[in-house]
Design a protein that fits this description.
The protein has eleven helices and no strands. By secondary structure, it is an all-alpha fold. The chain has one domain. Helix 1 packs across helix 5, helix 2 runs antiparallel to helix 3 and helix 6 runs parallel beside helix 10. The relative contact order is 0.13.
C-alpha cells in the first residue's frame, strides 16, 4: 500500500467513525428510502379525490397519474440531495481537516518529506470515495423502493436514469466537500469552520436564485429549477450573472431532464459544465493550500 492509498483508507475509516457524519448519513439515506413512499402517498391522496369527483360526475377526464412514469417517485430525492446531501458533504470536509489540526497530526506529517498537494488531494479522494459509496447505496435503495411502490421492477432505462442522477449528485456534492476542507484549514475556530461553509451553501442555494428570478422562496424547495426571469428589469440584468453560480438550480435543472420531468426544458450541457467548473475551482483551491496555513493552531 502506497502512502497516498493509506491516506485514502484512513480518511474513509475516520469519516465512518465520526458521530455527526453518521447522523447526517442516517437522515440522508432514510429520506432517500422514504421518498418513493412519500410520492406514493401524495399520488394516493390525489387519486382518492379524483375517484370521488368521478363518482359524483364532476369530471370525465382520465386520472392524470395513470400516465406518469415511475421516475415521478424519484423527484423528491433531488431536493434531499440539495439540502441534506450538500450539508453532509460540508460536514465531512470540515471534519477532515479540523481533525488534523486538533490532533496536531498535520505538524507531524508536514515534518516529513510530503508533498502537501498530494496529501490534501488524497484526503479529498478519500472523502469523494465515501460520497460515491453513499450515493451508490442510496441509488440501489431508491430503485428498490420505487420498484415496490410501482409494483414492478424498474426497466433498465429508468434504472439508468436514476443511476445517472446519483452520478450527477456526486459532481454536485464534491465542491461542498472541498469547501468544507478549505474552511477547516483556514478558520481560526471549529465553530467558524463549520458555520462559514453553511452560510456560503445557503447563499448559493437560496439567495442567488432569488437574485436571478422573482420566484417565491418556497418554490426553491421544489425538485425543479426556478422559473426564468422576465425579459427586462432588475432580474433580467442579474439573472445572467447569478445563474451560473446558482449550483442548486443547475443541479435541479439537469436532474429534471434526467428524470423526464415534462416541465423541464433546455439542455444539460451548460448546467453540467457550471457544476464541473465550480468543482474544479474549489478542489484546486484545496490543493494550493500552503504549508504554513496547515500548521496554524485553532483558538478553541
Amino acid at each position: 500500500m502506497t502512502r497516498w492509498s493509506a491516506v485514502i483508507v484512513q480518511e474513509l475509516l475516520c469519516t465512518v467513525r465520526e458521530r455527526l457524519p453518521q447522523l447526517l448519513l442516517a437522515v440522508f439515506v432514510g429520506m432517500i428510502a422514504a421518498s418513493a413512499f412519500i410520492g406514493s402517498s401524495a399520488r394516493s391522496s390525489v387519486t382518492g379525490v379524483y375517484q370521488e369527483a368521478l363518482r359524483q360526475g364532476l369530471t370525465t377526464v382520465a386520472n392524470p397519474f395513470d400516465s406518469f412514469s415511475p421516475l415521478y417517485y424519484a423527484r423528491n430525492t433531488v431536493i434531499y440531495i440539495v439540502l441534506i446531501g450538500a450539508l453532509l458533504a460540508i460536514v465531512i470536509g470540515v471534519r477532515s481537516t479540523l481533525r488534523d489540526r486538533q490532533a496536531r497530526t498535520a505538524d507531524l506529517i508536514l515534518s516529513r518529506d510530503v508533498n502537501l498537494s498530494f496529501y490534501l488531494g488524497s484526503k479529498l479522494a478519500g472523502l469523494a470515495l465515501f460520497v460515491l459509496l453513499v450515493l451508490a447505496v442510496s441509488a440501489m435503495i431508491n430503485i428498490g423502493c420505487i420498484s415496490i411502490v410501482a409494483g414492478h421492477v424498474l426497466s433498465v432505462g429508468d434504472s439508468a436514469r436514476i443511476a445517472a442522477l446519483y452520478a450527477l449528485a456526486g459532481l454536485f456534492m464534491l465542491p461542498f466537500v472541498a469547501l468544507g476542507m478549505i474552511t477547516g484549514i483556514r478558520s481560526s475556530s471549529a465553530t467558524s469552520a463549520l458555520l462559514t461553509p453553511i452560510v456560503i451553501w445557503s447563499v448559493v442555494i437560496f439567495i442567488l436564485p432569488l437574485l436571478g428570478t422573482a420566484a417565491h422562496p418556497v418554490s426553491l424547495l421544489n425538485p425543479v429549477s426556478a422559473p426564468p426571469a422576465s425579459g427586462n428589469g432588475f432580474f433580467a440584468a442579474t439573472s445572467s450573472l447569478v445563474d451560473p453560480l446558482s449550483l442548486g438550480e443547475q443541479f435541479k435543472h439537469v436532474a429534471a431532464l434526467m428524470l423526464a420531468d415534462p416541465q423541464a426544458t433546455g439542455t444539460m450541457a451548460g448546467s453540467i459544465m457550471a457544476l464541473a467548473v465550480f468543482a474544479v475551482a474549489v478542489c484546486t483551491a484545496v490543493a494550493m493550500t500552503g504549508r504554513k496555513r496547515m500548521r496554524r493552531m485553532l483558538h478553541d
